[in-house]
């Protein structure tokens, strides 16, 4: 194998309009984060990822640690599961700090690989009127 096949990089979402556009896509909830995914109209474009950690999750030191853990998980393991032409925003939850790193990577990989399930209303159940 060459170094090109063993090392895959993903692009970055860098400005607010890009992050807001991804909010219109599908949402996949997890224990440690919320993953927002948007399929762009560029099937050959690289996958792009952005990270969000809100102020309610701690001070700057804790937020930066959460962001660094998520970035490292994407860099080392999860970028291989990201599909070209998709944008991903990872919104951290406080549990990211205490999570074992291998468990965090596995949860992130699972959320990225799962297919979006459309929930249909169950019409067979009786409704309360």
Q: How is the secondary structure organized here?
A:
Layout: H1 3-6, E1 11-12, H2 16-22, E2 26-29, E3 33-39, E4 48-52, H3 60-76, E5 86-92, H4 101-113
Parallel strand pairs: 1-4, 4-5
Antiparallel strand pairs: 2-3, 3-5
Helix pairs in contact: 3-4
Short note summarizing the structure:
The protein has helices at residues 3-6, 16-22, 60-76, 101-113; strands spanning 11-12, 26-29, 33-39, 48-52, 86-92. It has 129 residues and is an alpha/beta fold. Helix 3 links the parallel strand 4 and strand 5.
Description:
This protein is 32% helix and 19% strand. The chain is of the alpha/beta class and 129 residues long. A 5-stranded mixed beta sheet has the order 1-4-5-3-2, with helices on both faces. Strand 2 (26-29) and strand 3 form a beta hairpin. It is globular and about 35 Å long. 25% of the residues are buried. Mean pLDDT is 85; it is low at 1-6 and 118-122.
Gap between N and C termini: 64 Å
Average residue pLDDT = 85
- Low-pLDDT sequence parts: 1-6, 118-122
Count, helices: 4
Give the overall shape, derived from the CA principal axes.
globular
Helix percent reads: 25-40%
* Spatial extent as radius of gyration: 17 Å
- Main beta sheet strand tally, sense and closure: 5 strands, mixed
Strand content: 15-25%
Number-wise, the strands total: 5
Structural class of the helices, strands and pairings? alpha/beta
């Amino acid at each position: 194998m060459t170094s090109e096949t063993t090392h895959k990089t993903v692009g970055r979402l860098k400005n607010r309009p890009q992050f807001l556009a991804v909010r219109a896509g599908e949402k996949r909830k997890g224990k440690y984060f919320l993953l927002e995914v948007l399929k762009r109209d560029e099937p050959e474009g690289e996958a792009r990822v952005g990270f969000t950690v809100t102020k309610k999750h701690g001070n700057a030191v804790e937020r930066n640690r959460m962001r660094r853990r998520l970035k490292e998980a994407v860099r080392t393991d999860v970028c291989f599961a990201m599909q070209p032409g998709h944008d991903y925003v990872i919104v951290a939850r406080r549990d990211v700090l205490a999570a074992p790193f291998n468990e965090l990577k596995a949860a992130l990989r699972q959320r990225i690989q799962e297919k979006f399930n459309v929930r249909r209303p169950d019409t067979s159940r009786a409704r309360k009127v």
